[in-house]
């Protein structure tokens, strides 16, 4: 979903509902300074609506095809709504509202000061529904974003633990290599000592044999 489009949409709905109320109240006013001021306010609001429609159109056309059609359908509804407001504004400013119609509107307004026209109620209801839908979509997007963030944190924690395990295993292997090197050195030293001891024992045995032979020969020659 496009939060940019929904932001423009929210602004348009609020502005459209406000302009509808102003059109209804302005049509009850007699020609004069107050009515002219209201007319200028409505005209400025319609210009702002045109700007928002163009912004929504540009944003909708920049979206992926899977969601573009939905936003363009919304946009057509808003354009139709804006055209109704413009026609109402033209009716107010063209002077087609007769005195009798103005008096009837004024009597209706006095009879029920807090009532609104059917068209205005429908527009307000539509605006509220769209705002609620936009709010729900934003909440859903935030929930999905938080879930994704939590999943990312969990994955990072798992990767960190695996890294620590690998480092620990690497350190153990390094220690084993050191122990093997030391063992080799000890075995080499023992081998050299055994070889040296063999030579010593052999030399001692040879000396003893020579001594025994010498003694035997000496005894034989003496007798």
Taking the sheet with the most strands, its summary is: none
Class per helix and strand makeup: mainly alpha
Tell me the radius of gyration. Answer: 49 Å
End-to-end Cα distance, whole Å, is 126 Å
Strand content: under 5%
Helix content: over 70%
How many DSSP helices? 5
Unreliable residue runs: 96-101, 107-116
Give the strand tally: 0
Write the H/E string, N to C. HHHHH
Write the layout of secondary structure elements.
Blueprint: H1 3-26, H2 33-61, H3 65-94, H4 99-111, H5 118-222
Helix pairs in contact: 1-2, 1-3, 1-5, 2-3
Structure report:
This protein is mainly alpha-helical and 223 residues long. The chain has helices spanning 3-26, 33-61, 65-94, 99-111, 118-222. α1 (3-26) packs antiparallel against α2 (33-61) and α2 (33-61) packs antiparallel against α3.
List keywords for this structure.
single chain, 223 residues, 0% strand
Task: Summarize this entry quickly.
This protein has helices at residues 3-26, 33-61, 65-94, 99-111, 118-222. It contains five helices and no strands. The protein is mostly helical.
């Amino acid at each position: 979903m496009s939060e940019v489009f929904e932001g423009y949409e929210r602004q348009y709905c609020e502005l459209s509902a406000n302009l509808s109320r102003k059109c209804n109240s302005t049509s009850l006013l007699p020609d004069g300074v107050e009515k002219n001021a209201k007319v200028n306010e409505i005209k400025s609001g319609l210009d702002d609506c045109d700007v928002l429609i163009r912004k929504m159109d540009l944003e909708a056309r920049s979206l992926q095809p899977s969601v573009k059609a939905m936003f363009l359908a919304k946009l057509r509804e808003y354009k139709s709504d804006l055209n109704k407001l413009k026609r109402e504004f033209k009716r107010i400013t063209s002077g087609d509202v007769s005195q009798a119609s103005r008096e009837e509107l004024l009597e209706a307004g006095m009879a029920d000061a807090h009532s609104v026209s059917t068209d205005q109620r429908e527009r307000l209801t539509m605006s509220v529904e769209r705002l609620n839908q936009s709010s729900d979509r934003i909440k859903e997007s935030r929930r999905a974003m938080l879930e994704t963030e939590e999943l990312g944190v969990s994955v990072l924690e798992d990767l960190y633990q695996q890294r620590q395990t690998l480092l620990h295993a690497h350190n153990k292997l390094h220690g084993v290599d050191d122990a093997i090197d030391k063992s080799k050195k000890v075995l080499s030293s023992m081998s050299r000592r055994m070889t040296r001891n063999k030579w010593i024992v052999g030399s001692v045995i040879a000396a003893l044999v020579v001594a025994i032979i010498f003694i035997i020969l000496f005894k034989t020659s003496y007798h």
